[in-house]
Amino acid sequence: MTGNGSLRGWIVAGAVLVAAFAGAAQASEPVSSSYILEKLAPITGEEEGRSIDLDITFDLGSARLSKEAVRQLEALGQALTSAQLANARIGIYGHTDASGRAVHNKKLSEDRAASVKAYLVATFKIDAGRLFTAGYGEEKLKNAAAPNAAENRRVQIVNLSPMPSRPPQPSQPAKDAAPVAPTGGMQAIQ
């Protein structure tokens, strides 16, 4: 190749390499059920602290679960049936990137969240009443600076159960009262 032909060849080769790396980045290893538990079942924290974004992939423009998604859902199902989360109410929120029409993305994200719920109910016999689904389409982008980025196409899992209440801490300890343990850090559950 000479001149433009050589340049065209390098551009095609470069595009093939970029596509190969992009494909490899998409096929990430699923996170473990213990990691999911760590994120969803802390002793303290706000709802956003009891949430995890999972790389649950779907066929393009579809709510059909991919093989990689099923592997990730196996770990999620194990975590949701563990003693720590066996009675928790769980939110399953679908999200898309900003490519395509907003109305289509909203419906697609709802369908994807429903597919995750259906799989968990059928495979792990989780009570469907414990699982709440919603689809946000492109409304809540994880990376607003890059609206079409892959990290925006996700399923968010949130523990919706109320946090265990703590006994009220006195503002001033009584004269003969035992000292009050400081709040924060590790707590024992009894």
Short description:
The chain is an alpha+beta fold and 190 residues long. It has helices at 4-26, 33-40, 67-80, 102-124; strands at 51-54, 90-95, 131-135, 154-159. 36% of the residues lie in helices and 11% in strands.
Strand and helix layout:
Blueprint: H1 4-26, H2 33-40, E1 51-54, H3 67-80, E2 90-95, H4 102-124, E3 131-135, E4 154-159
Helix pairs in contact: 2-3, 3-4
Give a verbal description of the structure.
With 190 residues, the protein is of the alpha+beta class. The protein has a domain at 28-159: OmpA-like domain (60s Ribosomal Protein L30, Chain: A, 2-Layer Sandwich). It has 4 helices and 4 strands. The chain has helices at residues 4-26, 33-40, 67-80, 102-124, and strands spanning 51-54, 90-95, 131-135, 154-159. The protein has a 4-stranded mixed beta sheet with strand order 1-4-2-3, covered by helices on one side. Helix 2 packs across helix 3 and helix 3 packs across helix 4 (102-124). The longest helix has 23 residues, at 4-26. It is globular. The model is unreliable at 6-27 and 173-190 (pLDDT under 50).
Key terms for this structure?
190 residues, alpha+beta, 60s Ribosomal Protein L30, Chain: A, four-stranded mixed sheet, globular, disordered C terminus
Instruction: State the end-to-end CA separation.
Output: 75 Å
The average pLDDT score comes to 74
Estimated share of beta-strand residues: 5-15%
Continuous helix count: 4
What order do the SSEs take from the amino end to the carboxyl end, as H and E? HHEHEHEE
Give me the count of strands.
4
Rg over CA atoms: 22 Å
The named CATH superfamily of one domain? OmpA-like domain
- Determine the structural class based on helices, strands and strand pairing: alpha+beta
- For the biggest β-sheet, the strand order reads 1-4-2-3
**The CATH C-level class name of one domain:** Alpha Beta
Shape: globular
Which residues form runs of ≥5 with pLDDT under 50? 6-27, 173-190
